[in-house]
């Protein structure tokens, strides 16, 4: 069957290289992958469409790339084969005990639908990340400490398998697959078409933001980590060190922000305590009024943009959400608050001197722990139940075509950052992969769960049909992988 014949067989839309919409259809969140030219992009409208695409690819010996929200840092949702895009399977349905999510739904759309239904679900901290990748990789965010990972709340999933069959998995049906899909990584075991998730009870939230002078960065980074470790589960918080190009007055700045499932007074008292621990005052501090969960999350994720505007540029007529430039990153999970000397080393790798050459870069930390760490390590595929922080660096270039030296330069910076992170690391999170991962990456991502994951892979995808650079395989990886 030729590619065009698939067009007549699916209810959704098939975009081929000669079609006018192809250049937009192939895009991911990161512009780096605009040069990858898939055989076709299938915007599936139903589970049957997905199954037909799987069979089409298998019959023709094509690779198949599963795409949800398209946020894979390392481009694992695209390639030269057939891209199965789930973005039109994006329903959000609130039922009695669960919320059903189409696997292509973006956080901001799910929150918007649930806004009027009196339901709340956990999401990450970026508006357009898709449920498909977020939940299969683990799913961390500001609600992790209070409610656990996004995947801890998944009660069932519908999955199209490599042989074209569709199964439902849950604790009672296909339990090994259900186990693997909660942290074993996307694009590995099958195409999830729908998740059922347990809603959470979080009717109101308070958002906060503080900015700190870079001169105080070592103390703020150290104090913020201790504050987050010792703080209540209701506190969801991130810290980012921004370069001068994004700081007030052209100076680098440290931003601490997040949401709290409590009162504005509790947040103010908490921020006072953070300032006391840091021994300095922030340049600015904003504590919002308590608001509806979806409204506060929308504002924290999208600012004043409407839902339609907040979508990624190119995905709708009003969409103006930014795309990410060519980036090299190093990320690790860490198991404790860094000491002052370790914080200083982390900031050295971010390197304030790079402002002089206009290097765009971030040091990002997200606080974890709480409920996520009260789950046994082997209960789901996500093993990192002792992680307290996700910490990492991104080094970006907005004109890589005009700067031939950029890839090597950014790789060297990311490597230096990886060295700074190594003494603190207790593993890696498959949804924030480093650009360069060496050695035994399966153990890095999955710890003692890797053996069971390989067994599930053998049982459900014996021919390794669903694969990308770091999907779990049938046997241990032996070579270094560079994505
Ligand atoms: C700017 C930004 C912010 C982020 N913030 C957070 C955050 O706060 N918390 C967090 O946990 N993560 C975050 N992430 C990471 C994000 O969770 C992962 O990149 C995730 O895999 C993206 O899912 P996606 O569906 O949007 O991406 P995609 O690129 O579409 O998919 C990612 C992976 O999942 C697979 N996949 C996608 N859909 C399915 C499906 N339906 N069935 C099976 N496999 C599927 C793909 O094949 C690919 O391997 C962020 C990423 C970015 C770029």
Automatic annotation (TrEMBL):
One Pfam family hit: FAD_binding_4
Major enzyme class: oxidoreductase
Keyword Oxidoreductase part of the UniProt annotation: yes
Keyword tags: FAD, Flavoprotein, Oxidoreductase
Cofactor: FAD
Start and end residues of each FAD-binding PCMH-type domain: 34-202
EC number: 1.-.-.-
One MF term in the entry's GO annotations: oxidoreductase activity
Family: Belongs to the oxygen-dependent FAD-linked oxidoreductase family.
Cross-referenced PANTHER family: BINDING OXIDOREDUCTASE, PUTATIVE (AFU_ORTHOLOGUE AFUA_1G17690)-RELATED (PTHR42973), FAD-BINDING PCMH-TYPE DOMAIN-CONTAINING PROTEIN (PTHR42973:SF39)
Protein name: FAD-binding oxidoreductase
Source organism of the structure: Streptomyces prunicolor
């Amino acid at each position: 069957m030729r590619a065009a014949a698939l067009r007549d067989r699916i209810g959704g839309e098939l975009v081929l290289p000669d079609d006018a919409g192809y250049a937009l259809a192939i895009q991911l969140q990161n512009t780096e992958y605009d040069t990858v030219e898939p055989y076709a992009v299938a915007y599936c409208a139903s589970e049957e469409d997905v199954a037909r695409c799987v069979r089409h690819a298998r019959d023709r010996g094509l690779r198949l790339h599963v795409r949800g929200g398209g946020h894979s840092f390392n481009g694992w949702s695209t390639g030269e084969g057939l891209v199965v895009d789930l973005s039109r399977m994006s329903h959000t349905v609130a039922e009695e005990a669960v919320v059903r999510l189409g696997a292509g739904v973006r956080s901001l759309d799910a929150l918007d639908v649930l806004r009027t239904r009196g339901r709340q679900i956990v999401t990450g901290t970026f508006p357009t990340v898709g449920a498909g990748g977020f939940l299969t990789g683990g799913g961390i965010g500001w609600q992790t400490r209070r409610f656990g990972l996004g995947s801890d709340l998944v009660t069932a999933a519908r999955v199209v398998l490599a042989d074209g069959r569709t199964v439902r998995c849950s604790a009672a049906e296909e339990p090994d697959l259900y186990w693997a899909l909660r942290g074993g990584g996307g694009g590995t075991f099958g195409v999830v078409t729908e998740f059922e998730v347990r809603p959470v009870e979080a009717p109101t939230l308070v958002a906060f933001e503080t900015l700190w002078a870079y001169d105080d960065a070592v103390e703020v980074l150290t104090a913020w980590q201790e504050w987050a470790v010792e703080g209540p589960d209701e506190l969801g918080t991130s810290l980012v060190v921004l370069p001068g190009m994004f700081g007030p007055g052209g100076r680098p700045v440290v931003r601490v922000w997040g949401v709290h499932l409590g009162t504005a007074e509790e947040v103010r008292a908490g921020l006072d305590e953070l300032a006391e621990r840091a021994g300095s005052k922030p340049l600015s501090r904003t504590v919002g009024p308590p608001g509806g969960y979806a409204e506060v999350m929308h504002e924290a994720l999208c600012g004043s943009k409407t839902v339609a505007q907040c979508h990624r540029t190119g995905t709708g007529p009003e969409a103006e959400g930014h795309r990410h430039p060519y980036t090299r990153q190093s990320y690790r999970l860490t198991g404790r608050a860094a000491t002052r000397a370790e914080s200083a080393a982390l900031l050295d790798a971010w390197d304030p001197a790079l402002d002089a050459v206009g290097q765009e870069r971030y040091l990002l930390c997200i606080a974890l722990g709480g409920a996520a760490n009260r789950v046994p390590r082997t209960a789901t595929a996500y093993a990192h139940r002792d992680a307290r922080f996700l910490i990492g660096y991104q080094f970006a270039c907005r004109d890589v075509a005009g700067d031939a030296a950029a890839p090597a330069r950014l790789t060297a910076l990311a490597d230096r950052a990886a060295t700074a992170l190594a003494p603190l690391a207790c593993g890696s999170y498959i949804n924030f992969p480093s650009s360069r991962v060496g050695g035994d990456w399966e153990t890095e991502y999955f710890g003692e769960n890797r053996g069971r994951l390989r067994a599930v892979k053998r049982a459900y995808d014996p021919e390794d049909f669903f694969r990308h650079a770091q999907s779990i395989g049938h046997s241990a990886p032996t070579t270094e992988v560079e994505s």
